[in-house]
Amino acid sequence: SAVISQKPSRDICQRGTSLTIQCQVDSQVTMMFWYRQQPGQSLTLIATANQGSEATYESGFVIDKFPISRPNLTFSTLTVSNMSPEDSSIYLCSVVGRGEGASYNEQFFGPGTRLTVL
Amino acid sequence: AQSVTQLDSHVSVSEGTPVLLRCNYSSSYSPSLFWYVQHPNKGLQLLLKYTSAATLVKGINGFEAEFKKSETSFHLTKPSAHMSDAAEYFCVGYNFNKFYFGSGTKLNVKP
Prior knowledge:
Chain A has strands spanning 4-7, 10-13, 19-25, 32-37, 43-49, 56-57, 68-72, 75-80, 89-97, 106-109, 113-117. Chain A is mostly beta strands. By secondary structure, chain B is mainly beta.
């Protein structure tokens, strides 16, 4: 299994500023994702973070607003740019891997970053 | 298109009674299916997964789910609810390197 840490765990930011969220995994993983969970909602996939190339964004999310870096197989950052109160959410990093002895992929989640924009 | 539908946004049961959380999937191919639980202000925890090895899957904390291809369903059940089961539950499908989240079901357990 993969252990994922995220920094910061929470932050309160002013409108118009940017926040960069870090995701660190304890093992090398090929597939890494960033999700958003708005209050009382399910998870929405923002993008797939690709190592060595540009991230793949889902419909409704753009690179200018959510730039992503993936410099290696254990680390990624997501920046929330020019924030507004609508960006207040939990942002989660996720990786795909195999549990011990497993023959299938499963998804492991970081603890999330709780962002409040005033 | 692949999708996962959770049929109830809220379910309320009394402690000690059975739990049923419903999930239907839409897929051209048999997907892998998962149930995750999210307790308030906590991260997502994997409850159980179906990967075609067996249609009845047992998970942690007494939960189980049955994959029914004829009904395209993967409902989550537990014989007897406990107060600590109160949380939000997500049904998730996986196919072609992508995960599909259901909208979630909030489970309330009354004393």
